[in-house]
Amino acid sequence: MLDLLAVIPFGAYVVIFLIIPTLVVVIGAFGANPEDGGGATLENIKALGSRQVVDAFVFSISLSAASALIGAVLGALLAYAVATAKPDGLLRRIVTSACAVLAQFGGVTLAFAFYATIGLTGFVTVYLADHFDVNIFSGGVWLFELPGLTLVYTYFQIPLMVIVFLPALDGIRPQWREAAESLGGSTWQYWRLVGGPLLAPAFLGSTLLLFANAFSAYATAAALVSQGSPIVPLQIRGALTSEVLLGQENVGKALALGMVVVVAIVMWLYALLQRRTSRWLG
User: Who's near 147: CB < 8 A, 6+ residues apart?
Assistant: First the structure.
């Protein structure tokens, strides 16, 4: 009974901040506006097939996939370097502490940091132009497009990868490496036949988590992109706050429902991979 009472606060948190908002989104996505008489309708769902919305989903998925893959590879390499250091050493404490902070460093602050550094009048941009006659935007203002947003998103994806992938690396037992070497296996053979297959589910699961993290990000892109709505969260903002097209609130909920479906699929795959990882990590 006491165990049940202990989880009541968590259950209330889940209901208030997850279940109820999800129900509001689902009901609103299939509901007509009060101005149109209310009731159920599929018009909001049909709006997801428009060219603008499809392009936003494609851009969001491309941005999330690119930043997740880059962040996963670089973050895994950094996590491996940390895992090979002393477990209680200064390097590990510094890197893990920094990653815990930087993984949450986003939104307007991160957008301003990049704009002040490599923006049109950023420090690095001006320095390269004045001293080396190099214009990093000679081919266009890529900072506000897919390459620039990918770079900005990767900034918080790498430390997040270190945090979620480091436990898997710590789960690799030295005895497995020693057994492979005692049988005459080389370092490449160990990682190809033993270490790699064992870490693959954890790596793929962490990559999916990074994808979901980028797919749901809003504030950083909103601060960088002042015109247009290239990603789905900005499309939702436009539907809810537009003063040109009124009565688009339920279209915004339909967009949110589309995001919920994508994230649910990704999290389902993540749970399957984590279940497989736990078989040997434990």
Answer: none
Q: How many residues does the chain have?
A: 282
> CA dihedral in degrees (242, 244, 245, 248; nearest 10)?
20
User: 225 Cβ partners below 8 Å, 6+ apart?
Assistant: 144, 149, 234
Max Cα–Cα distance, the chain, nearest Å? 76
pLDDT tens digits, residue range 45-65?
Answer: 988 899 999 999 999 999 999
Both tokens of 49, joined, read: 């097939």
For 177-194, letters b (16+ CB in 10 Å) and e give: beebeeeebeeeebbeeb
Rounded (5°) CA angle 50-58-30 = 45
- pLDDT, one tens digit per residue, over 241-279 is 865 556 678 888 999 999 999 999 999 998 888 787 776
* Surface-to-core class of residue 145, CB atoms within 10 Å of its CB (0-12 exposed, 13-18 middle, 19+ buried): middle
Whose tokens are 């339920």? That residue is 250
Q: Find how far residue 30's CA is from the centre of its chain.
A: 28
103 contacts 163 by C-beta, under 8 angstroms? yes
Q: What pTM was estimated for this model as a whole?
A: 0.89
Which residue has 């997040």 as its token pair? 160
- What Rg, from alpha-carbon coordinates, does the chain have? 23
